[in-house]
Amino acid sequence: MVGTSSQVAQWALAELATVVPGAHVKGQAHVGRTDFASARFPKSLVLAATQRFLREALENSNVSAVVTTPDLAGHLTGSCGAVVADDPTRTFYLLHNHMAASGMRPDLVPGISSKADIHPKAIIEENVSIADGACVEAGAIVRSGSVLSEGVLVGAGAIIGADGHFYKRFDGKLLRVLHAGGVFLDKGAQVLSGAIVQKALHPAFTSVGEDSIISVAAHLGHGVEVGSRTTITGSVQIAGYSKIGDDVWIGPSAVVRNLISVGNGARIEIGAVVARSVPEGGCVSSPFAMDHKRTLRKFAEWTS
């Protein structure tokens, strides 16, 4: 009941560019989604504000158009279109917000199975897919763009598809960037009471693999991918677009930064602060609490 891309709406690049005064277009293209330069789905519009990301975008057949600078626009090749602007980052996110407000969303077939067990005090938005045997408990919220596969459990008060924190500062003001994605919970996945799973920023899915557990008050940021049979225990925080492998165990109150990977079978101990990727089968921990005066002495030694 879930597709592989976002084809709900498409925009002609020339028409889309009129949303941002001062932007102009090179080439002809139609786009159906925003994404990163590493886009996995066709018809993508991506930000290419540096030569590195422009090169990556031009080598990616899924990218139909880029938002870039006047200087970098001179390096365009092939059929790739471009929206050219002095501030491409601001332009890209304004275009993203316009597309998100105009129908850009992940591709899914909506429907709620008569064999799903949904508590009358749960809140279920439109444009969701809930399969046979899924259970949504009291006070849980399942937001638009969410897919609950067979046997999924959403515990009391959990939120599936929350809008995450993504803001950009331009001219001293914060621009709220809209979330256009969704959440995909594979067969038998469990999201326990009070946990939050944010929807993806672009029209794809934050995903939790088969038979994985997101425990009480844990928090998955936008675009996180969790493999199968993984246990994420209570109050864990995993920041956006990190990838967690299969058969991983993450201990209570651990924090995993954004854009890193945790390999299959890895273990993250209680309270760890993980700022680098963890290899397959690795085990990491952070310093544990000890006498305060001793801690200060040790800190002085480390920093002297």
Walk me through what this model shows.
By secondary structure, the protein is an alpha/beta fold. The chain is built from 5 helices and 34 strands. It has helices spanning 13-16, 51-58, 70-73, 88-101, 292-303; strands at 11-12, 24-26, 30-31, 33-35, 44-47, 63-68, 81-84, 111-112, 117-118, 123-124, 129-130, 135-136, 141-142, 146-148, 153-154, 159-162, 167-170, 173-176, 182-185, 190-191, 196-198, 205-208, 213-214, 219-220, 225-226, 231-232, 237-238, 243-244, 249-250, 255-256, 261-262, 267-268, 273-274, 283-284.
pLDDT < 50 runs, ≥5 residues: 1-7
Q: Roughly what fraction of the amino acids lie in strands?
A: 25-35%
Distance between the termini: 59 Å
**How many strands, what sense, and barrel or not for the largest sheet?**
9 strands, parallel
User: Count of helices?
Assistant: 5
Summed over residues and divided by their number, the pLDDT gives a mean of 95
Q: Could you tell me the radius of gyration in angstroms? A: 21 Å
By secondary-structure content and strand pairing, the structural class works out as: alpha/beta
Oligomer: single chain
- Categorize the overall geometry: globular
Helix content bin: 10-25%
Q: Record the strand order, biggest sheet.
A: 9-12-15-20-23-26-29-32-34
Number of strands: 34
Summarize the model shown:
The chain is an alpha/beta fold. Helix content is 14%, strand content 30%.
Index terms:
eight-stranded parallel beta sheet; globular; nine-stranded parallel beta sheet; alpha/beta; 304 residues; single chain
